[in-house]
Design a protein that fits this description.
This protein is α/β, with parallel strands linked by helices and 218 residues long. It has one domain: Alpha-Beta Barrel (TIM Barrel). The protein contains 11 helices and 8 strands. An 8-stranded parallel barrel has the order 1-2-3-4-5-6-7-8, surrounded by 7 helices. α1 packs parallel to α3, α4 packs across α5 and α6 crosses α8. The longest helix has 17 residues. The two termini are 36 Å apart. The relative contact order is 0.13. The structure holds SN-glycerol-3-phosphate (G3P). The site of SN-glycerol-3-phosphate (G3P) has 9 residues, from α7.
Length: 218
């Protein structure tokens, strides 16, 4: 499973990229606004820090303008994935960009039908938002299960399931059990994945027992 970090905060991206466990980054207009930085500058810096796919989202809603914006974003770096919304114009833009060889991440996916359209449009990634479905009492994980089941029926589909709107470690674990390709998560959730109280307890005991030996390894 690939782990992407869902943020535009460059300091957090640098910190987590240093672990060697970050396979890409996703941003969206809200995360860019939160960063307080110029869109093209922060995306270019992220692309220089993380070699994997970096999603940068168009900000218009009509095909002609989205296509122009998508081409501008794709020109930033070779690892840019242009993000487009799951709308008619967004999928038209996806098809045009994908046919030209651009990596596209189709976002704001909330149904299996939408995910089929994203695959037909040649998306590199589809981003189903699990947390926002859970937030309204629906099952985000059921959507992931449905999409993974459908995609498995069509080996010709090249679209990877990029689980987004992740609220905690169990979204990551349950998505992995279903065979989703990517989980994109806030830095806080990625950090949560490492922790377990028995690991801390066991390491403390190893450290204490080693200290008693009076030895050093180096
Ligand atoms: O990449 C999509 C993600 O940022 C949405 O997450 O928490 O706003 O639902 P959230």
């Amino acid at each position: 499973m690939k782990f992407f970090v869902d943020t535009a905060e460059i300091s957090e991206i640098r910190e987590l990229a240093a672990t060697g466990l970050v396979d890409g980054v996703t941003t969206n207009p809200s995360l860019i606004a939160k960063s307080g930085r110029k869109f093209l500058d922060v995306v270019a810096e992220i692309c220089s820090v993380v070699p994997g796919p970096v999603s940068a989202e168009v900000v218009s809603n009509d095909f002609d303008t989205m296509l122009k914006e998508g081409k501008k974003l794709a020109a930033i770096a070779k690892n840019i994935a242009v993000k487009v919304p799951l709308t008619v114009d967004g999928l038209k833009t996806c098809k045009a960009l994908a046919d030209a060889g651009t990596m596209v991440n189709v976002t704001l996916c909330f149904s299996p039908a939408q995910a089929i359209l994203a695959a037909k449009a040649g998306a590199a990634f589809v981003s189903p938002f699990v947390g926002r479905l859970d937030d309204i009492g629906m099952s985000g994980m059921q959507l992931i299960a449905d999409i993974c089941q459908i995609y498995r029926q069509y080996p010709g589909f090249r679209t990877e399931v990029l689980v987004a709107s992740i609220r905690g470690p169990m979204h990551v674990v349950d998505s992995a059990k279903l065979g989703a390709h990517v989980a994109t998560m806030p830095p806080s959730v990625l950090k949560q994945l490492f922790g377990h109280p028995l690991t801390d307890k066991g390491l403390a005991q190893f450290n204490a027992d080693w200290k008693k030996t009076g030895q050093s390894l180096l």
